[in-house]
Design goal:
Elements lengths: L1 H4 L9 H15 L11 H8 L3 H13 L3 E4 L3 E4 L4 H6 L9 H17 L1 H7 L2 H12 L12 H14 L3 H19 L15 H10 L2 H11 L1 H8 L3
Antiparallel strand pairs: 1-2
Helix pairs in contact: 2-4, 6-10, 6-12, 7-12, 8-9, 8-11, 9-10, 11-12
C-alpha cells in the first residue's frame, strides 16, 4: 500500500497547456519587447519538439490573451495586451465566488483612500468646479445612503479621472459594478446603525481647502460604513 502512495501525481495538463507555458517562458528568456517578432511556427516546433498543430493552438491562446498579434511582413509580434479587456470578461459578479467578490470590494476601499496624493498633484480649479456641479446635482439626503451607484460613478469616477492614471480609471469601471453587487447582496453584515460620514460635498470642500493627509482621512471616514460591515463582529 505504501508503494502506491509513493507514486508522483499525474500531470493532467494537456500538451497545449504545457507548450503555452513554455512559449511564454521562451519569450521572456529572449527578452522580447513590444513590436519584436517571435520565432516562426516551424522554428517553435523544432525548439519545443512538438507538432505544428500544437504550436498553432498555443499561439492562438496567446493571441486571445493579447500577448501576440500578426503583422504583415513581420509575422507574429509581441503586443501590449489590453489587460482590462481580458479581465472584464471574468469580472462578472454572477460567476465569481463569494470570497473573491469580498476581496474585490476591499480593493476599491484601499484604492480610494490611497490615491489622495495623486489627486492633489493633478487637480485644477476646473476639476473642483466640475465636482461641485456633480454634488449639487445629487438629490437631497444623498449623504444618508450607504451606496448609490449613480452617485458613485459620477463623483468617484471624476476623482479617478483627476489622477491622470488611465489604468486606474479603467480598473474603477470594473470595480464599481461588483462593489454595487456586493453592497446589495448578503455577503456583508448589515449595519444596525448607519454612522455619519463625510459626504461627497464634504470631500469637495477638503479638496479645495485641505491637504492630501486631511483628504485621506476624510475618504476613510466617507467609506467608514463599508469598513464597519467588513469588520463588524455582530
Amino acid at each position: 500500500m505504501d508503494s502506491i502512495l509513493d507514486f508522483n501525481k499525474v500531470d493532467t495538463s494537456s500538451l497545449v497547456d504545457r507548450v503555452e507555458d513554455n512559449l511564454v517562458q521562451l519569450l521572456q528568456e529572449k527578452k522580447l519587447k513590444v513590436g519584436d517578432s517571435i520565432p516562426t511556427e516551424l522554428e517553435l516546433c523544432n525548439i519545443l519538439g512538438v507538432s505544428r498543430t500544437v504550436v498553432r493552438e498555443a499561439l492562438l491562446r496567446l493571441r486571445m490573451m493579447g500577448l501576440i498579434d500578426s503583422k504583415k511582413k513581420k509575422g507574429a509580434v509581441i503586443t501590449s495586451p489590453d489587460i482590462f479587456g481580458v479581465l472584464s470578461k471574468s469580472m462578472n459578479p454572477h460567476i465569481l465566488d463569494q470570497e473573491t467578490l469580498k476581496e474585490i470590494f476591499e480593493i476599491r476601499l484601499v484604492l480610494e483612500i490611497g490615491m489622495a496624493d495623486f489627486i492633489y498633484n493633478k487637480i485644477t480649479a476646473s476639476d473642483i468646479n466640475e465636482l461641485k456641479v456633480i454634488v449639487a446635482n445629487e438629490p437631497a439626503g444623498s449623504s444618508d445612503f450607504l451606496f448609490n451607484i449613480d452617485h458613485e460613478i459620477a463623483f468617484h469616477g471624476k476623482l479617478y479621472e483627476i489622477t491622470g492614471n488611465s489604468t486606474l480609471k479603467k480598473f474603477q469601471n470594473l470595480l464599481l459594478p461588483i462593489f454595487d453587487y456586493v453592497n446589495n447582496s448578503g455577503l456583508l453584515k448589515k449595519n444596525a446603525k448607519l454612522h455619519k460620514f463625510v459626504s461627497h460635498k464634504g470631500l469637495v470642500d477638503i479638496l479645495e481647502n485641505g491637504s492630501p493627509e486631511i483628504f485621506r482621512n476624510a475618504m476613510r471616514n466617507h467609506l467608514e460604513n463599508h469598513f464597519a460591515r467588513l469588520f463588524s463582529n455582530e
